[in-house]
Request: fold
Amino acid sequence: MHLGSFISRKFCTLKQTHSSSHLNLNIKALVQKGQHFEALQCYSKEPLKTFKLTFPALLKACASLQSLSIGRTIHATIIVMGMQCDPYMATSLINMYVKCGSICNAIQVFDHIPKSEDVTVWNAMIDGYFKNGFRKDCVAQFREMQALRVKPDGYTLSILLGVFSGVSTGKEIHGYVIRNSFEGDPFIVTALVDMYTKCGRAMDAWNVFESQGDKSNVVIWNAMMSGFCENGLWNRSLELYSLLRERNYEIMSSTCCSVLTACSEGEDLEFGRQVHCDVVRMGFGSDQYVHTSLLTMYAKCGLIEDAEKVFGSVLGKGVETWNAMVSAYVGNGWVHESLLTYNQMKTRVVASDSFTISNILTSCSIIGYYDFGRSIHAELIKRPVQAFVSVQSALMTMYSKCGKLEDALEVFRRMEEKDVVAWGAMVSGFYKNKRYEDAVGLCKEMVSFYMKPDRNILVMAINASVGVESLELGCSFFGLAIKLGQESDAFVGSSLMDLYSKFGQPEMAKRIFSGVSNKNVVVWNSLISCYAQNGLPELSISVLPQIVQHGLIPDAVSVTTALAAVSSVAALLKGKAIHGYLIRYQIQEDNQVGNALTDMYIKSGCLKYAECIFNNMPGRSLVTWNSMIAGYGSHGECFKAINLFGEMRRSEITPDHVTFLSLISACNHSGLVDEGLKLFQLMREYTIEPQIDHYVNIVDLLGRTGQLDDAYNLILNMSMDPEPSIWLCLLSACRVHRNVELGELAAQNLLKMEETRGSNYVQVLNLYGEAGMKEKAANLRAQMKQKGLKKIGGCSWIEVKDSTDVFFSGDSSSPRTIQVYHTLHSLRSIMKWKGDYSESCLQ
Reply:
């Protein structure tokens, strides 16, 4: 009986051991297949039967699913079993915590184990610091590693080369690699190539590549192709791929991905199609990453239908392929299709990741789908993906663009770790919603947390300073830009120029312009605009040819701004020269350019040219119609203006207050009272409330025809308080028609509002003088003298060849004063002689 019991117990033990062994093998197999959730389910059913060598596989599953809670449970079991000091186990634990975003737990694991000579544990910790952005800690860990004489391996050096963003420190590691004979390690060579290309040193990367005697390892070729592409040398990447094929080296699927990325960057569709043929020929048709690169290439080239064909040919679509299709739709403006694709993902139970969510939230931002975006946010609450900074930044952007800034701020304040992108998203939200003070305050808060704003945040901060009308604040951000070495950046420089331009300091804007290292067209445009806004049209116009002299081609903004400056001085020859630039450099004409050309020719007196531009414009905006109507009016072509208004209405273009102002002004100049009053009444049909300029024109229209009582009654019944221009207009009409009583009434109201304006007193003086009221005129003249008031002189200008001369009434400061007066004296003498000669002939 005793022997039977012993045999029975032994058999049960063997059976349990076999069962445990089967369970552990099953867990490892599931992890190897990528079925991480199923592996953790197996463990949860019988956790006590887990072997020591199975725990690393379970921790890998936790890392892939970013399941921190289960990972901690497994960690507790490892501690109970006394295995936490095992280097292999510690490495797995550190990797799990790092991938789950808990660097603090990873540090605790590392600190509580004996500092062994096993380099893999050190590598795991260094890699953890690197992936979480703690570069200084990463270097400190390496220094400690050296102090304890733990020799780094190729993987350690590869991580460190990724840490250093400066060329000098990178070269130090390069020297260490050469001294310790690591230069033949393909991983280190790849890391060196990556380091140099990320520092913008493509030639140094090429020298490392060329120094390799054995170039059969295609991974190095891939790194070099990617490096060229990152530095904008995508054509060199394509040449390298062609060379790789000529040498008959084995091409990997990753090589195809690299070269397809280069095709995407350069939008080289023909080469991309050739690579597509290579993909099919080499049997990479089932590779998900290659499909994703192909899909992206076609999408970047604008062939969304071809991208859809590639997407449809993939049988087992992973999340990367779905993401690529969603991104392709978003990038090409097919927003609704991106949302439909996302719904298909959910239907087919494909788990979305942070990239998917970010793209879908971008789609919601574009079309203002607040409810849909909020529902996605609700789904994210229970998922670890919500903790991703990219997702939280996309949520903030979505809420901001939908005008829900409080929701965006709520997401921002709840973030545990905020990177520059997150800060930038919130600053952008405030700025784009015109909450400039909040945008500036958040920038200051960011700096107080020792975060370095990037150039986009600096640009928004400078522009927000303009929004709050604070030059001092803008200057403080200028100081920050200098501290961060960003003052020579083209976009930061352009914003600083706009800042000083808005505060009337064109000299300072020119100094900023001179300090920008790589001047693009945007910077030049800022200088043109600065001069134009500060009353320096001649300088503004002179900048345009300088753009061409510096090897750049002006764009539509350059031309539009320069034409506006030409219009302000009516310099026709220069306007025609700019029109020549437009044709010569085939600058794409849009409505703004067409409008600027029309306005320039109208103000320069060339109505026929303006008509030609107008008639040849393919798509006329409301501004286009208004410009032409105003042009006809200013040239005395009132009936043409009214006829064009009729054509505009037939084209189903709804007029605005500017349209009616131009029409009423045209009727005013032509003395068409009835037509002007009809147009004034027609404004009501379009629910346009008359503004002060409309009333001024109607008062002037009635005053010209002597209907002074009607004009006065209109003023009394205005929907707003009369401004000085209204009373001045009535006063001028009273003077013309000798209505002194009403003129004095208008004068009283006018002088009450603007008692220090000399020109107003002159109008009243003329009224008294022409009516023969000398005593009142003398009293008013005495008041003017007592107050020290004078009439501001008028001015005129004339354009001769390449220069414009301006003349002010009563001014003798012109360098040509003597010449002008000599000419006037000659003309007076000739006129007198001709007059005397005519009289003698008549006698």
User: Anything to note?
Assistant: Confidence is low (pLDDT under 50) at residues 1-18. The first strand starts at residue 795 and ends at 800. Residues 795-842 form one domain.
